[in-house]
Amino acid sequence: MRTFQPIFRSRVRFAWVLALALFLACKQEKETPETPAAAVPSGPIWQPYNDSAEVAGNADHPIARMRYKLIQSRFTDKNEVFGPLYGEAMQMSPETYAALRPLILEQPMPVVQEHIKAGRLSYEQLTRFFLYRIYKYELDNATTLNTVIALNPDALRQARICDEVLKTLPEEKRHPIFGMPILLKDNIGAAGMPTTAGAVALLHNRPGDAFITGRLRQNGAIILGKLNLSEWAYYFCEGCPVGYSAVGGQTLNPYGRRVFETGGSSSGSGTAMAVGYAMGAVGTETSGSILSPSGQNSVVGLKPTVGLLGRSGIVPISSTLDTPGPMACNTINAAILLDAMKGTDMNDPKAGTYYLEGTGYLPRPYSFAGKRVGVFAEFLETDSLYARAVQQLRGAGAEIVAMVPPEVELQGFGTLLNADMQIDLQAYLATAVREADSVPVHSASEVVAFNLGDTLLRAPYGQARMIGVAQDRTSPDSLEAIKRQLRQAGRRFFNTPWQANRLEVVLSVNNRHASLAAVAEYPALVVPMGYRATGEPAGLTFIGKPFQEEKLLDMGHAFEVLAGARQLPRAYRE
Fold first, then answer.
1. Which one of 24, 56, 186, 207 counts the least CB within 10 Å of its CB?
2. CA distance 549 to 522
3. Domain covering 372-411+479-563, topology
4. What is the largest CA-CA distance in the chain?
5. pLDDT tens digits, 34-92
6. 167: how many CB neighbours lie within 10 A of its CB?
7. The predicted structure's pLDDT at residue 41
8. What average pLDDT does range 112-140 have in this prediction?
């Protein structure tokens, strides 16, 4: 894979502002291009099926929370999701799709931009390619991952605008994400689509763009649609399946449908990137919700330092720990996506403090030679993939330091999440939800009461965590004390061996140390490191100090090139 140098810097972009005005302010009625008669379905494009056999097939799964009760959503009709764009998507022939696949699938964004610049591809074709691919797999009940739960009806029109803007806007004034289709986890607001967090109570919630969605649009990205997630970002039920939501159904892992967990709560973001449904996806994390699905789906995922990216317009769990972050099939695309979302969010008191305008970034060449890398001694003995990755880094010149961190307890972690969500969710429902939306809840306690109206469909696995949120009575002083204690515990865990051994980075696996990194306020990056004997993916996790995202991406890119571990799932390579 080529290593790309930084290729963009901040500047006043008068022409770009004009282009964006066209891109964002076009309110005229959507064009309806002619569609070949053969592309227009004579009936439903998707048929619901009886999933009882699949549910029964998982009844004895060794992982208790994979013993599903439901696979399909009982609230979302895929005909309504995929019908409006079906005619346009199917304008692409199978032959054209096959010809474009090597130009697009798994490619870094700068490579795709070069293809567009050379005339081998257009933004409209790029967007239609991903729609075709989504329809190809998600409308087939044998391959569906229940991943995409909403599509932007204006996606192709916006792609055509990008093709027009390309003719007049110089390359140096275009962000590398310009014209790139991006998918969002469905707790992130996006105009023209609902923002449900997977919950029936928010089925008609249409709050408009979150801050980071606005930043993506301003930089020219095309918001392609919304992705399934663990309901309420997996702070809803106790011991329930990851990747399940009442709105989206059960997200499935493409490396083993109903065999391997998807990870959560950004399950749709991980699975969509695993099979190549867009150039990038955005997830969110409180504790492991980007790292877990990235590792489980063999993709790159970055949990940034809280405060790097704005969070307004995102359905919250904890204002202390929540952050959005990029997910992609490679580190280059993750870096571009991260850069495109940065900005000063005036509605998020914790975001923007450390943001510097114009720090445009792509992974740079990085050498592990002489770098002191902290590894967990226990993993060297128990995880062969981890041991192999460490050996690869040693071969690249890294000085490997086996460490045994101090034992720490995260006392009050659940209390922190309960207390924060009680406050933060109520604030979101009071500010983000419009009066015109049919949202019947205004607090966690009302969410609980609403679900009691039909627990079989609205909360089939219960709602123990949401009940805990509703019942929390933690005082503000006690909450602040818990936050301080947790931060100190997390930093003691990492800093003790870090300082004693003069480490550059600490390496973990998937989300094994996500909670500790979260409370310590340390960023973490997952990069694919291979597949276990069963075929289950796993990721190597780079944990750094606050606001060292660029350093982590440099390291991650170097390891990505060194290991060359990622492979598309076998059933999704065509």
1. 56
2. 10
3. D-Maltodextrin-Binding Protein; domain 2 (3.40.190)
4. 70
5. 333 335 566 799 998 999 999 999 999 999 999 999 999 999 999 999 999 999 999 99
6. 6
7. 65
8. 97
Burial of 97 (0-12, 13-18, 19+ CB in 10 A): middle
Establish how many alpha carbons lie within 13 A of residue 79's alpha carbon, considering only the half-sphere containing its beta carbon: 8
* 543 touches 513 (CB < 8 A): yes
Q: What does the alpha-carbon distance between residue 510 and residue 270 come to, in Å, rounded to a whole number?
A: 12
Which tens digit of pLDDT belongs to each residue from 410-461?
A: 999 999 999 999 999 999 999 888 777 789 999 999 999 999 999 999 999 9
Angle, in degrees to the nearest 10, between helices 413-431 and 444-451: 90
The total of other beta-carbon atoms located within 10 Å of residue 171's CB is 12
Give the length of the chain.
Answer: 574
Residue 249: enclosing H or E segment and its boundaries? strand 249-250
Long-range contacts of 57-61 (CB under 8 A, 24+ apart): 57/258, 58/258, 61/258
- 332 contact partners, CB below 8 Å, separation of at least 6: 1, 4, 108, 109, 110, 362, 363, 557
CA-nearest of 332, 340, 324 to 185 is 324
List the Cα angle 288/290/291 in 5-degree steps. Answer: 60
Report the C-alpha gap between 148 and 143 in whole angstroms: 13
DSSP letters, 478-547, are HHHHHHHHHHHHHHHHHHHHHHHHT-SEEEEETTTTHHHHHHHT--EEEEEEEE-TTS-EEEEEEE-STT
Enclosing H/E stretch for 303: strand 300-303
* Cα–Cα distance for residue pair 351/331, rounded to 1 Å: 23
**Nearest 5°: phi and psi at 537?**
-70, 160
Structural contact between residues 327 and 297, judged by C-beta atoms closer than 8 angstroms: no
Pair of tokens at residue 331: 């580190």
Q: Report the half-sphere exposure of 37 (CA within 13 A, side-chain side).
A: 0
- Sign (positive/negative) of CA torsion 486, 487, 490, 491? negative
Per residue in 501-511, pLDDT (tens digit) is: 999 999 999 99
Q: 65-347: which CATH number, 3.30.420.40, 3.40.640.10, 3.90.1300.10, 3.40.50.300?
A: 3.90.1300.10
Average pLDDT, the chain: 91
| C-alpha distances out from residue 30 to 27, 84, 154, 410, Å | 8, 12, 7, 52
In a 10 Å sphere around its CB, with 0-12 CB exposed, 13-18 middle and 19+ buried, how is residue 88 labelled?
buried
- For the beta sheet containing 323-328, the strands, ordered from the edge strand earlier in sequence to the opposite edge, are 148-151, 222-227, 181-185, 280-285, 323-328, 300-303, 524-531, 537-543, 505-509, 372-376, 399-403
- Catalogue the active-site residues: 185, 265, 289
For the chain, the structural domain boundaries read 65-347, 372-411+479-563, 416-475
Q: Tokens at residue 158, please?
A: 């916006």
